[in-house]
Amino acid sequence: AAVPAVPGMVLPSGVRERVAAVHRGSALPERLRLYDGWATDYDQDVAVLEYRAPHLAAASLAFAFPAAPAEARLLDVACGTGLVARELHRHGFRCLHGVDGSAGMLERARSTGLYQELRQCVLGREPLPGPAEQYDAVTVVGALGEGQVPTTVLPELLRVTKPGGFLCLTTRSNTSNLRYKRELEAELGKLERCGAWQKLLAQEVEHWERATSEEESTRGTAYISGVVYLYQKCPVPPLEED
């Protein structure tokens, strides 16, 4: 299909403004207020953006799981309105817990009926609720980016993951997020070198979502690119002998 010649310009201005506002790197209270206000339009806005991260992350996790996913306990960090939960549910995952900093977003997530538990938590400011090593997988889809969740949260994500459990993370590769992406990949690599986890996947995806401006667009395609990372926490359980 032909891609629009003028990147981003076909997006409704309201969508562009709301996306720009939350990525502006404003102070935390202001950012949470923006997310609260965005909650009612969020699902339709990301549909307009053709945002593929929830679908791609859920597919990566489903591929990695050795056991029946219905038994697995998953934590959806920065769960927003529940887009990732919908995708995970389609792949057979049923035990889903979610955390988010925005009360407005959590309210929408609750209305999906897909989560067993939802808690408010501002990642980077406070620890994740609950004890260590309780989740078979942890997802952070969309929140790891410039002006959002700091890269220093990775050890906290590892803390709540069971040994042998999976962590699925995403970030964008658009111009304004490249510094953050480099920083994130440096932290990911550091944890791998010290034996905290092993990398299973780093998948670069060209049509991640539609660009909201010409400057952000990848090579004039009207889209930005992104990446899905999948890690497994060490020690990895040995394969059972038949």
From TrEMBL:
Signal peptide: none
Protein name: MET27 protein
Methyltransferase domain segment(s): 75-165
Pfam families, per the entry: Methyltransf_25
Recorded name of the encoding gene: Mettl27
Source organism (scientific name): Mionectes macconnelli
